[in-house]
Amino acid sequence: MSDLNRLTQMVTERAGGLVLYARQWLDAASAEDVVQEALTALLMETRLPQNPIAWMYRAVHNAAIDSVRSTSRRRRREQIVATGRREWFESSADSILDAQVAEAALKQLSAEHRQVVVMRIWGELGLAQIAEVMEMSVATVRERYISALAQLRGALEKPCRNKMD
After folding, report:
1. What is the C-alpha separation between 60 and 39, in angstroms, rounded?
2. Closest CA relative to residue 30, chosen from 3, 84, 70
3. Could you tell me if 53 and 11 lie in one domain?
4. Distance of alpha carbon 84 from its chain centroid, rounded?
5. Residue 117: phi, psi to the nearest 5?
6. pLDDT tens per residue across span 13-38
7. Domain count of the fold of the chain
8. How many whole angstroms separate alpha carbon 112 and alpha carbon 97?
9. d(CA 149, CA 109)
10. Which of 29, 53, 84 is the last residue of a domain?
11. Which residue has the higher pLDDT, 157 or 72?
12. Domain of 72?
């Protein structure tokens, strides 16, 4: 049996223990990934360590800690972005348009209809410019704009309640 085969067998026999060791820091799937990466790194070594099993535990430990740190940094960045995210519209007390209702109405439009409305109203682009951006005819852009406005009007207009009801 070659050294490589014997090494692979030794590590494979201890894979369960290595995964359990990594699970101190990671979930099951991530722990298995870390063990797999450590095994791959061991097999790529030009000189085998004196104690391959101890080396594997050290490699799994280091990779697990790196993974935890990386995940923590990513979550912090995502949290910063999420808390810094502004709503589509800014609400103000004197606004005749409820920002949350307007945002919800826009989100109900298809992506293409929403793009046309945003470019036309907030981007102040002409229909020809929008057609160029969206790579469609001016007639199609106009049709989508009119359709989107009708949908928005229906979503944003609140019917008056009859006092007799």
Report:
1. 9
2. 70
3. yes
4. 16
5. -65, -45
6. 888 888 989 998 899 889 999 998 98
7. 2
8. 23
9. 10
10. 84
11. 72
12. 3-84
Q: How does pLDDT run across 140-162, given as a tens digit for each residue?
A: 999 999 999 999 888 877 655 55
Residues 11 and 76 in one domain: yes
CA angle 85, 87, 89 (to 5 degrees): 145
Sequence-separated contacts (24+) of 12-20 with Cβ below 8 Å: 14/53, 14/56, 15/39, 18/56, 18/57, 18/60
Per-chain mean pLDDT for the chain: 82
Per-residue pLDDT, averaged over 116-124, amounts to: 86
Query: Is the same domain home to 69 and 114?
Result: no
What confidence category does residue 125 fall into, taking pLDDT thresholds of 50, 70 and 90? confident
3-state DSSP helix/strand/coil % of the chain, to nearest 5: 70, 0, 30
